[in-house]
Specification:
By secondary structure, this protein is of the alpha/beta class. The protein has one domain: Cytidine Deaminase, domain 2 (3-Layer(aba) Sandwich), CATH 3.40.140. 25% of the residues lie in helices and 38% in strands. The chain is built from 4 helices and 8 strands. Strands 7-6-5-4-2-3-1-8 form an 8-stranded mixed sheet. A hairpin with a 2-residue loop joins strand 2 and strand 3. It is globular. The C terminus is likely disordered.
């Protein structure tokens, strides 16, 4: 399960709508606790793909992932996952998503149809990298989560 405050969902939605018709992405910053992930904030990242490829692909540079990881460590938090958008497509991971994912992170996908987010879902990859399973999203109070 991943716990995400409505403000975080709103932030992801705003990023996805702002970057439409291109894919957007960012890191989910929070805490791992047992089998759960708690998202405290997002760390938006720039899509480094060429303009023509941004519609259905995102490229996050390793240096940007390192910035997000450093930022999380400085706040005594973890990178617990990654979010991105699917312009004019479903909030379901693609084969490309599976090929580039890590088993320990949650993957939140925002479906953006005609410039508006219509669905947000979260996914966890099997440890053997064979597929994603949908992960339940629960709401949290950010003040409570920040004390974790």
């Amino acid at each position: 399960m991943i716990e995400v405050d409505q403000n975080i969902i709103n932030t992801i939605s705003a990023h996805a709508e702002r970057d439409y018709p291109h894919e957007c992405g960012g890191m989910l910053i929070g805490k791992f606790e047992d089998e759960n992930r708690y998202v405290i904030e997002t760390f938006p990242l720039e899509n480094a793909r060429d303009e023509a490829d941004r519609y259905d692909r995102i490229l996050i540079l390793p240096k940007d992932v390192m910035k997000a990881e450093r930022y999380a460590r400085e706040k005594d938090l973890d990178v617990v996952g990654y979010y991105h958008s699917h312009p004019d497509d479903k909030a379901i991971p693609s084969q490309y998503d599976l090929d580039h994912a890590l088993p320990v992170w949650s993957y939140i996908i925002a479906s953006v149809i005609g410039g508006k987010v219509v669905d947000i879902r979260s996914w966890l990859m099997e440890d053997d990298r064979s597929r994603f399973n949908e992960e339940r999203i629960e709401g949290i109070d950010l003040k409570t989560a920040a004390g974790r």
